[in-house]
Amino acid sequence: MFSRIIVLAAFLVVLPQPEAYADTATQTDLSCGDGILGSVIDWGNECYCKLMNIALLRTMLQLPLEHTIDGDFDAARSVHSADINGDGCMDVIGAAYSADEISWWENLDGSATSWTKHTVDGDFFEANSVFSADVNGDGYMDVLGSAFRCITWWENVDGSGTIWTEHTVSSDFSGAVSVYSADVNGDGYMDVLGAFHYGYITWWENMDGSGTRWTEYTIRQYFNEGTSAYSVYSADVNGDGCMDVLGAAMCDHLITWWENVDGSGTSWTEHTVSGNFGYAESVYSADVNGDGCMDVLGAAMQADDITWWDLTAMLSE
Q: Which DSSP string corresponds to 92-103?
């Protein structure tokens, strides 16, 4: 990018009588006396060079800067960010499928340019999803993960992110591919949700808030194609104060949300957002258009689509 600017400057110098101007410019009168405009101190967003018949945008220079945190995290599959050690800096958590690993990288000075890796679990077979929440309510950010047969969380024992105690939520959740945490039943305790590739969307109730006693509830058992559920998320989709659940079903090409009817997490009404979203692989929810209502976002592997849906019409029915 710097070489492009230098070449352009050379053309402007050597070619006869070039004319360059901007759509707006800000000048100062401090150096030339009262009422006499002086040097330009700021240009507008669009700059033009008439001689070369081109238009340059200042915003072109504002390119995103790529920062590699770890270039050797074998078959990295999932990433999340949270302040793991409570130092006020956002850290990064990752799951590596081939490395069977859950790790986090400490953002040493908050600039996100200097990182120290900490392994949470180096023997988590076929790790594929990671999330972070304060599962046991002790004020420290814990780590959750899904792997081939299980849903697990690791307790951040002293809040430093260097001492971890493993707690199994489910050891018989074969094909687990996604994990999330939210207070599904509104009792003030963080619960756990999982998507199971062979067809289940499930949540586990954190019975006493300690994260050691769990009760399992199935929201959706088997989609049409059987091997389908691939992503799970939770949000209050319809604004009734109860946490609902969203899911992506890959083989059924479905994006779905389930209404938490009475807030207990035991009665669900299914709503289809899209039934033709080719190989739906990921789902999320946020107020995308700022109208105060939660929208739904999805990623489809086969359709090559990133899409969001405005649910206003659906929710007004």
A: EEEEETTTTEEE
